[in-house]
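Hi R.,

Here are the chain sequences for the assembly we discussed:
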Amino acid sequence: MTASTTPAALLVLTTTDAADKADALARGAVEARLAACAQISGPVTSVYRWEGAVETAAEWQVFLKTTDERYEALESWLREAHDYETPEIIATPVTRGSAAYLAWVAAETTA
Amino acid sequence: MTASTTPAALLVLTTTDAADKADALARGAVEARLAACAQISGPVTSVYRWEGAVETAAEWQVFLKTTDERYEALESWLREAHDYETPEIIATPVTRGSAAYLAWVAAETTA
Amino acid sequence: MTASTTPAALLVLTTTDAADKADALARGAVEARLAACAQISGPVTSVYRWEGAVETAAEWQVFLKTTDERYEALESWLREAHDYETPEIIATPVTRGSAAYLAWVAAETTA
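And here is the predicted structure of the full complex:
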């Protein structure tokens, strides 16, 4: 594989407040071929401001791997599937990576 | 919201050696509006070289969400609040994300 | 230190299916000066498609810190040391960070 054929990928991060909800988000995104795979990490402690006070809550992080091309469809799906009003959905670029792994991500997210 | 108004955000990562120190860093940064929110994950196993030997230690990771604009103030605050001589403070760019969530990050970090 | 001397760094992520394998990957990369340090987080729940069905498995995430310059050598080493046929090896750029910490990453990965 030449560098020019390596697909651009993204590491997408969302969080939710229960293990089974994190599992449903990860499983649903992979099932729909919107992400090649996902890891669920948790419980983690979330710290945020709510009505003027700093609060903490248990959450689960979901790390999803997808391509640039599929990002918008994944984000739309996550917003719909998530039960938060304004869920965290952020993506950082994958600028280096195993060519074989990136090719697998692209293949797994091709409908 | 148009794409041009979406604020540029950063995912900032630091680590420390106790859960209560991680909590204080996360809470303090959110309290000071230097980060919109944070997640604490741990204990994780840190592996590093110390005086020639590879050592392991329990640490806690803190993932903070802020804007480009607030990064320098957040880094200065973390360096001051942290009790390591050279703490890990690194940031990766958020190049895609939910516009509503990114707007919330910007609003929460506006003094 | 001026901004121009701050080395470009990467946050590299791999996953494996046992804590001792994650430890060996982290320790071996630091031992070989291919990464300055690593954090192992797990067990996490991995979700992926296998032979048409969505499966879950326990995995451990390894977060490695290195420089752009050492990335290719680190990736080669990880591919060799890993027992998966197509391991996840992805890297996101560190675009901001503590100058002292980034200098330490560069020093620790200099042979």
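The longest strand of chain A covers residues 53-67. Strands of chain A lie at 9-16, 37-50, 53-67, 89-94, 96-97.

Let me know if anything looks off.

Best,
T.
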